[in-house]
Amino acid sequence: MAHDSNLTRLLVRWGEGDAEAFRSLVPLVYDELKRLAAHYLRNERGGHTLQPTALVHEAYLRLSGLREMRLNNRAHFYGAAAGVMRRVLVENGYAIRKLNQAYFAFHGSYAVGSSATDPIGGKLRLLRKQAGSLAEFLHTVAQFSEPDDLDAALRQ
């Protein structure tokens, strides 16, 4: 119970703008935050590169930058921290999805090896040879919005 009342006092001081109170708060909640992070990461897709410690540290950085944060008690704090961790995971997943989309757009497939089919790689190489310069090629490709645009550019 003393732990909860100390935690509540620190939360109130932090809400009043005392940054030192937040730094004092972290050692009291770190282990629980790490357990919470591990729980969230277990529910993520396999092969996730983020570790619980990194997720806690990212949440710490985001929480420490907040101003006018009014948290009434331990449960309110953990709820806010959980929300920050979920946002970090969503943002991280979004960035990975964008990287995958860029890889697929450039390479045409995820397949590797001699038996892999590359549906657009050969066409892109041909278009690059036809282009007068790299700038012209990039300008042309930037206009594409669907695969048929590549075929139309090759016919010109």
Detailed description of the structure:
This protein is elongated. The protein is built from seven helices and no strands. The model has no long low-confidence stretch (mean pLDDT 81). It folds into two domains: 2-103, Rna Polymerase Sigma Factor, Chain: A; 118-155, no CATH class. Helix content is 72%, strand content 0%.
Computed CA radius of gyration, to the nearest angstrom? 25 Å
Give the strand tally: 0
Q: What distance lies between the first and last C-alpha atoms, to the nearest angstrom?
A: 77 Å
Average pLDDT: 81
Beta-strand residue fraction: under 5%
* Overall shape: elongated
CATH class of the largest domain: Mainly Alpha
**Poorly predicted ranges:** none
CATH architecture of the largest domain: Orthogonal Bundle
What is the CATH topology descriptor of the largest domain?
Rna Polymerase Sigma Factor, Chain: A
What is the structural class?
Answer: mainly alpha
| Major sheet details | none
Number of domains: 2
**Can you give the helix content as a percent range?**
over 70%
Query: What is the element string, with H for helices and E for strands?
Result: HHHHHHH
How many helix segments?
Answer: 7
Report a brief summary of the structure.
The chain is an all-alpha fold.
